[in-house]
């Protein structure tokens, strides 16, 4: 019996050895497309495996990933290379600060092998562990199936934070986090559960805004680093359609202001410099030190007739977190009149050195503008980088920094012009950006098979604590705090 067991173990071992693929002894140099394109990208050491596939799935394939001390060889499964998580972790740990040399062998059936080699650079800079986004159909009407989701970047685990099938198909949007911590967040709901939901660990408070006796909505949010204040815009937004234009849809504001909510005193603050009838003010963002508020402002015009004339400048105003007082003058960081383009989504890196923002030819709803690009301003030198290595011929729009200022994620439609997908970029100590790459998924077919866009990608360092059931229960409660007075205007 013991002899049979030993023979069985030896047989299994030999079978495993026989199943391990071998790289071809001879292979000519060649080129073939892979998706997602992870060639020559810089990835974080703590990222999930970047599974990829041969675009021509009629090809047979073998890939070898090699570091100084490790090697992994995998045969393609119907054109797909699935990298085991444990093996990838060992490889990436070994390659920190260096690279993984990848060789892809491919051939048509019964043909000679060819090979293509490229590096994947592994940074010692880790990325925030979680990414939160809204999944929604990419059109303008199919919003009855959407949700806010949390994805662990270190593996492929995705969690539903809240979806609108549990809330009478209400629209939900604009999630934001305090200090990149999942414990404190907010989001908006529209429709029968209308309101802004402020979450502190497992406690939920719903607030609504009234202006001049009429319902109004908080829209684009940004937390103050202290956690006491949240800056919002309040926008009256309209939507029209192009008959013949490079852009399908036009979304624009006919009125917008910037307000600041004080969570401790439950009051709303503003200033004539943040809420003027002569201008559209929107997209607020505090600086990391909390002493300034950035926002975008454009001259108000007759809409929609003059929608192409609307261009937003980037302004800065002082803010005192001790008492919530707002400065009496604004500084211009980006002058739309001089530049001839329109800026939105200003985001300062957590270390305070770089300012990342979106520019387009006009307007403020960049996700529908194919000319929208990302630019980056060095705050110490004033030099603007147009980021040619990051941008594409299609849309680049919303973006979010990782807590160590070494990574940012942005939404892009570069793959097909329709679906918005999350791309990650490394930023080195000199402020130079690497090649963007898609957030890895278990299957390289995931994005092509998905009918959803990924909107408002936000990095967080700790997971969201509150349960979906608690949020659904809170949305159904009638208890709500209504704010009717705005101090300062």
Give me some keywords for this one.
single chain; 489 residues; mainly beta; Immunoglobulin-like; Neuraminidase; 2 domains; 6-stranded mixed β-sheet; 5 helices; 36 strands; globular; disordered N terminus
Model description:
The protein is mainly β. It has 2 domains: 25-123, Immunoglobulins (Immunoglobulin-like), CATH 2.60.40.10; 130-476, TolB, C-terminal domain (Neuraminidase). 9% of the residues lie in helices and 45% in strands. It is built from 5 helices and 36 strands. Strands 1, 3, 5, 6, 8 and 9 form a 6-stranded mixed β-sheet that branches. A hairpin with a 2-residue loop joins strand 13 (172-178) and strand 14. The termini are far apart. Mean pLDDT is 92; it is low at 1-18.
Distance between the termini: 90 Å
The structural domain count equals 2
Mean pLDDT metric: 92
As a percent range, the share of helical residues equals under 10%
Q: State the low-pLDDT regions, or none.
A: 1-18
Number of helices: 5
Tell me, briefly, the overall form. globular
Q: What CATH architecture of the largest domain do you see?
A: 6 Propeller
Number of strands: 36
Taking all Cα atoms into account, the compactness measure Rg is 25 Å
Structural class by helix and strand composition: mainly beta
CATH topology of the largest domain: Neuraminidase
Portion in strands? 35-45%
């Amino acid at each position: 019996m013991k002899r049979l067991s030993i023979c069985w173990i030896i047989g299994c071992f030999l079978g495993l050895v026989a199943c391990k693929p071998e790289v071809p002894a001879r292979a000519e140099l060649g080129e073939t497309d892979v998706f997602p394109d992870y060639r020559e990208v810089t990835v974080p050491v703590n990222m999930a495996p970047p599974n990829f596939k041969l675009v021509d799935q009629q090809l047979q394939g073998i890939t070898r990933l090699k570091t100084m001390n490790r090697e992994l060889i995998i045969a393609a499964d119907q054109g797909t290379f699935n990298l085991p998580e444990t093996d990838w972790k060992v490889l990436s740990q070994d390659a920190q600060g260096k690279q993984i040399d990848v060789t892809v062998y491919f051939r048509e059936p019964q043909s000679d092998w060819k090979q293509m080699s490229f590096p994947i650079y592994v940074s010692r800079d880790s990325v925030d562990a979680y990414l939160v986004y809204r999944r929604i159909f990419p059109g303008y009407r199919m919003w009855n199936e959407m949700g806010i989701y949390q994805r662990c970047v270190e593996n492929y685990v995705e969690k539903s934070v809240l979806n609108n099938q549990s809330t009478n198909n209400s629209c939900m949007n604009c999630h934001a986090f305090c200090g990149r911590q999942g414990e404190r967040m907010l989001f908006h709901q529209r429709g029968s559960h209308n309101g802004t939901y402020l979450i502190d660990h497992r406690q939920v408070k719903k607030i609504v805004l009234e202006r001049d006796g009429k319902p109004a909505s908080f829209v684009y949010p940004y937390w103050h680093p202290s956690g006491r204040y949240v800056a919002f815009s309040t926008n009256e937004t309209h939507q029209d359609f192009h008959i013949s234009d490079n852009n399908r849809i036009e979304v624009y504001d006919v009125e917008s202001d910037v307000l600041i909510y004080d969570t401790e005193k439950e009051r709303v603050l503003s200033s004539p410099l943040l809420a003027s009838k002569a201008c559209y003010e929107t997209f607020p963002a505090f600086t990391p030190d909390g002493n300034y508020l950035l926002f975008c402002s454009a001259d108000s015009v007759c809409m929609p007739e003059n929608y192409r004339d609307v261009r937003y400048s980037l302004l800065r105003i002082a803010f005192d977190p001790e008492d919530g007082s707002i400065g009496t003058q604004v500084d211009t960081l980006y002058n739309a009149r001089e530049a001839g383009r329109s800026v939105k989504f200003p985001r300062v890196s957590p270390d305070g050195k770089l300012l990342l923002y979106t520019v387009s030819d006009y307007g403020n709803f960049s996700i529908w503008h194919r000319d929208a690009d990302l630019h980056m301003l060095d705050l110490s030198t004033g030099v603007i980088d147009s980021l040619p290595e990051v941008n594409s011929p299609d849309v680049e729009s919303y973006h979010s920094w990782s807590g160590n200022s070494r990574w940012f994620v942005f939404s892009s439609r570069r793959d097909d012009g329709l679906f918005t997908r999350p791309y990650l970029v490394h930023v080195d100590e000199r402020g130079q950006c690497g090649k963007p790459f898609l957030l890895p998924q278990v299957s390289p077919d995931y994005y092509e098979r998905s009918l959803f866009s990924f909107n408002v990608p936000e990095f967080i360092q700790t997971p969201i604590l509150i349960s979906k059931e608690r949020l659904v229960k809170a949305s159904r409660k009638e208890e709500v705090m209504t704010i009717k007075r705005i101090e300062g205007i």
